[in-house]
Amino acid sequence: MNPTVDRKTAVVVGHGMVGHRFVEALRSRDTEGRWQVVILSEEPLPAYDRVGLSSYVGAWDASALALPGNEYAGDDLVELRLGQCAESIDREARKVTTSAGDTLAYDALVLATGSYPFVPPVPGHDHPRCFVYRTIEDLDGIRAAAEAAGPGASGVVVGGGLLGLEAANALRLLGLTPHVVEFNARLMPAQVDEGGGAILERLVTDLGLHVHTGVGTSSIESGDQGVQVTLSDESVIEAGLVVFSAGVRPRDQIARDAGLEVGPRGGIVTDLGLQTSDPNIWAIGECAAVEGVCYGLVAPGYSTAEIVADRLLGGAGEFPGADMSTKLKLLGVDVASFGDAHGTTAGALSVVLHDAAKGTYAKLVVSDDAKILLGGILVGDASAYSALRPLVGRPLPAEPAALISPAGAELGADALPDDAQICSCNNVTKGAICGAIADGACDIPGIKKCTTAGTSCGGCVPMIKKLLEQSGVEMSKALCEHFAQSRAELFQIVQVTGIRTFSALIAKYGKGTGCDICKPTVASILASTSSGHILDGEQAALQDTNDHFLANLQKNGTYSVVPRMPGGEVTAEQLITIGEVAKEFGLYVKVTGGQRIDLFGARVEQLPLIWKRLVDVGMESGHAYGKSLRTVKSCVGSTWCRYGQQDSVGMAVLLEKRYRGLRSPHKLKLAVSGCARECAEARGKDVGVIATENGWNLYVGGNGGLTPKHAVLLAGDLDDETLIRYIDRYLMFYIRTADRLQRTAPWQEALEGGIEYLQQVICEDSLGIAEDLEVAMAQHVAGYRDEWAAVLEDEEKLSRFVSFVNAPEEADPTISFDETGERKVPVLLGLPEVPIATPGK
């Protein structure tokens, strides 16, 4: 920072994704510190990923959506004011008055106010059970209303566009039955045509949505379940809540009040440099009407932010236009739209492949001579999107029909010119990516760091991989510096050679003494290929802390104890014992989302004493500490529920007992729902089973975490025997071929051919390995023994459970707890305490 610089002040009104991008761009380029930035954020949270808002449902962790660097820690030239908005602008004095009553002077004012949800003036639209779908706070309100309505209640979404279907999926994840009301004749009318809309409607209906197209909403009144929604065709829906998602409008009121020019349909009018009718005021993102046009996607919003940052530093950048292409996965259904998707160009021709049996629709819009690609629509399978979108406006490398036909031409990265845009979010071309590869970027993280491609929505990553492969860069599959082989290759070596120790494996196939990457990985492989105990012999030294003590290490050095409860079932005697153990050892008790009970705060020397009590009443390890099966969640199913179609609890118990103790590359979670209402949230699990009238639908590859994924359908209407056989094959195939710490979703997506390939391998036995996979699973089932029961019978293993090797009777004096509040919480001695919110306080 240069103290002699004549510093100016930029006030940014709005701290959404585009506002944050502007601040990042300005601060990264302003090397001399010429600009001081003050940000007014109306929301109490700093900038977060609003595009990924739906991932908040289920996790309910706002921090997971936070954009990197959104608090500008350590940057003295950025002041972030949360919970404050701009009330008025004095253009003559160049000052902004805030909702806190402060007055801020500016040299440049950047309006990044975004948009607001349009709520049609339907009678009753202000009912307390009516919501919009825009912010984290909105979703919290929807969640509370859904819980009040109860599982299975209906929820109405007014609007069947992109955001409407996202809102419907959120209601579905909350246990409601979604009804989508769309005034147009089809869903997502802006993105897809009539044919694509028909396929989309069928696919989402199969997933449990009720779709009402070609009708409006006449009125909303209080009803027995919360609200009564009357449609224009006089039909009535009794629902627990209503969500309006009927489009957005530019948020331009503060500009109107200040006398700035606005467009006839809203939006703050700017030139191509994003300058408004006042030369000291700029507008970016959804609130900006660039030469009269508003753009509602994040990619053009980022472009406007970059241009204003450039202008404030003396540049002359201009808005280059916007790529309005979209690719998304709605309720697990792929939808993509790019270029002139509706064929409005004069003389445009359409080439359509409509496969109703497979549930896919593909349309390419081409020039009148069928040589230039103008746009397209993909529904059900959008795998060709990343290769087709950069070709818009360019000659096609093959016949249009061949590019969308399953048996047609494969469009490779070599067909794209260097100036083709690969990453539309960050405007990165093929040439820029190839240049980064030539300069030494040899993997995806390296390219992301050099070019920013793939750092936003991630939709361009498959094409980046193709460019890497095309360039001849050999991407290393080595597990670590000690093994040149991948995890899958080491698994095959262990399986074929019969090697049963790490020392023998590294002596023959590796080098050195090993590390904290290869040791636990090999330990997992050995456990996956044998029924031996993980603490037997040399294997004990390979385990990480959790597996070494068969418990999950917590932040203050204590451990959690999680007994297995298949299907969430527990006997009265077991429940009483859990309570007695918690009371005797002073443990914190928490019911988990996996339908079992977690006991926190056990010291390492207490673990055997606790487990002795639990094992004596028939309980066993829940493997919460290992890369293995965690739980099989279930609803009550047909045994109790009036909607249940199969015995979900019985199936969940069967599956959990079958796969308990199964070691794998990453943790595994399963779930069984007794009907399509999906109360067990099966499609968010690695393996999800959903009952039908005729049997079971099997879904695979669902994950939570930072990048949640819905499981996709592997096979439908299966009987019990076939279901179990397919799950056996799927899990064993995953265990044998996945990379270290690779969850099922990314493993599945990385397979050549994706779910279709898996269906061939698992259901059709295309590789001829089905019997081998089933035998391997049968060996696991036959050889299973509870790990803690085995420890309690072995004095050598018991000797490991001490705080200090040289003083086995002493407890760790650094472990302490704060029990003054309503909850027992760990205290980290020597470290600053982190305040923990207490409900009601």
Task: Give the key terms.
25 helices; alpha/beta; five-stranded parallel sheet; 841 residues
Tell me briefly what this model is.
The protein is of the alpha/beta class.
Model description:
The radius of gyration is 29 Å and the shape is globular. The strands form eleven sheets. It has a five-stranded parallel β-sheet, with helices on one face. A five-stranded parallel β-sheet has the order 9-16-10-11-12, covered by helices on one side. A five-stranded antiparallel β-sheet has the order 22-23-26-25-24. The two termini are 43 Å apart. The protein has 841 residues and is an alpha/beta fold. Helix 1 runs parallel beside helix 7, helix 10 crosses helix 11 and helix 13 crosses helix 15.
Task: Describe how the helices and strands are arranged.
Elements: E1 8-13, H1 17-29, E2 35-41, H2 56-59, E3 78-82, E4 86-90, E5 95-98, E6 103-105, E7 108-111, E8 115-117, E9 130-132, H3 136-149, E10 154-158, H4 162-173, E11 177-182, H5 194-206, E12 210-213, E13 217-222, E14 227-231, E15 236-239, E16 241-244, E17 248-250, H6 253-257, E18 268-270, E19 281-283, E20 288-290, E21 293-294, H7 298-312, E22 326-330, E23 333-339, E24 349-355, E25 360-366, E26 373-379, H8 385-388, H9 400-404, E27 421-423, E28 428-429, H10 430-438, H11 444-451, H12 461-470, H13 487-497, H14 502-509, H15 518-528, H16 545-549, E29 552-553, E30 559-561, H17 572-585, E31 588-591, E32 597-602, H18 607-616, E33 629-634, H19 648-659, E34 668-673, E35 687-692, E36 695-700, E37 712-718, H20 720-737, H21 744-750, H22 754-762, H23 770-783, H24 787-792, H25 795-798, E38 815-818, E39 825-828
Parallel strand pairs: 1-2, 1-7, 2-3, 7-19, 9-16, 10-11, 10-16, 11-12, 18-20, 33-34, 34-35
Antiparallel strand pairs: 4-5, 5-6, 8-17, 13-14, 14-15, 20-21, 22-23, 23-26, 24-25, 25-26, 27-28, 29-30, 30-32, 31-32, 35-36, 36-37, 38-39
Helix pairs in contact: 1-7, 10-11, 13-15, 20-23
